Amino acid sequence: MKFNTKTIHGGQNPEETTGAVMPPVFMTSTYAQSSPGVHKGYEYSRGGNPTRTALEDNLAAIENGTHGFAFASGLAAIDCVLRTLNPGDEIIAGDDLYGGTYRMFTRLFKKYGLEFTHVDMNSVDNISNAITERTKLVWIETPTNPLMKIADIEAICSVVKDVNSSILVAVDNTFATPYLQQPLTLGADIVMHSVTKYLGGHSDLVMGALVVKDKELAEEIHFIQFAAGAIASPMDSFLALRGIKTLHIRMQRHCENGRAVANFLENHPKVGAVYYPGLESHPNYDIAKKQMKDFGGMVSFRLKDESKEAAFKFLESTQIFTLAESLGGVESLVNHSATMTHASIPEKERLKMGITDALIRLSVGIEDVDDLLADLDSALNL
Ligand code: P1T
Q1: Spatial contact of 101 and 137, defined as CB atoms under 8 Å apart
Q2: How many CB atoms lie within 10 A of CB 58?
Q3: Pairing state of beta strands 135-141 and 90-94?
């Protein structure tokens, strides 16, 4: 099946007892057994639930993997990956990450003896230079949140696997979605999603996902999902599956609108820098063009007036772009990373990353692009 068919049919069959075309929401915690241990494949919903299975099979299909897993949040999915490691293991991660991922790495897992090295993943050499005998995981976010940096997934996987084929490479594919890039096909071992964003697509749920292509790794992840218990609920699984059915159509419009907004901002006299991988001025435009089908709906930019007051005035003035955390829904959102999504990063680190008061992040929705541009223009000109 091609991608646009997989979003709708991947891993899906009509429900067995009734033929229901859409998977029913199996609101049950437990399942009848005819004799101890004799059942129809489900025992207890932490271990498995048919609505969650329908979603997990679809996730595996759209990411070209063999096994999908749905978690209570994106962070719960990342937490699961880190639980595969042991004290003393080293992780190489990017230097621009979602603030909650950075917080989990530095404030939760450091104290359990995991060690994190943050490098600029623009250069594959930075990664190969950071690999030691204790390196067990490379964590890639591309495009990064919020600076839209691009890492070359295929090149990184090839260098890492050349040094030591047992080092796992995981890619947070939240910003791109499998519509734009499929990391498992490019050599990664694990794909992670905040399903809360584009996969769900309607800002009505919080969920995470992992997809893998290796049976042993799948068994380990399933064990952790079951043993630690941070599972996605049946209702959320239903909503996510419904969202994914239109992922390809929504992404087309997100990309069109994202490109129009990036071009508009790049030519606006009040705007300094614009960060969008589809602009030729983006330092990784060539990698983005090679790796991604299109460039997505996330656009970050800096105002020329770099004061906090100017940024806040803009953030308080948009009418269609709603000031809110999160991204990837049908509606346009605007975010101030320094005080919102990335506030948990210590100021010194944050400034070093480039997340200053003047940085504004847009999640460009699928509304009429003329309305979006007019909204931005009027807020910029106030
Ligand atoms: O919020 P949650 O579903 O737990 O997912 C965490 C997460 C992981 N990875 C990336 C790239 C993310 O952007 C996120 C969540 N991000 C936001 C809430 C935000 O506004 O950036």
Answers
A1: no
A2: 26
A3: parallel
Strand arrangement, sheet containing 322-323: 271-275, 298-303, 359-363, 333-335, 322-323
Q: Which protein residue's CA is at the shortest distance from atom 21 of ligand 1?
A: 326
Whether residue 146 is preceded by a cis peptide bond, meaning omega within 30 degrees of 0, is yes
State residue 124's pLDDT score: 96
pLDDT of res. 147: 97
Structure tokens at 86: 């042991």
Residue identifier of the C-alpha nearest atom 20 of ligand 1: 326
Q: How far apart are CA 337 and CA 145, in angstroms?
A: 9
**Which positions are annotated as active-site residues?**
46, 98, 172, 197
- Pick the residue whose CA is nearest to atom 13 on ligand 1: 98
Instruction: Find the residues whose C-beta lies inside 6 A of ligand 1.
Output: 73-75, 98, 100-101, 141, 145, 172, 174-175, 194, 196, 206, 208, 325-327, 335, 341
- CA nearest 149: which of 131, 112, 179, 176? 176
Q: For residues 48 and 14, what is the distance between their CA atoms, to the nearest angstrom?
A: 18
How many other CB atoms are there within 10 angstroms of residue 375's CB atom?
Answer: 18
pLDDT along the chain (382 residues), means of 10: 98 94 97 97 97 98 98 98 98 96 95 96 96 98 97 98 98 98 98 98 98 98 98 98 98 98 98 98 97 98 97 98 98 97 92 94 98 98 93
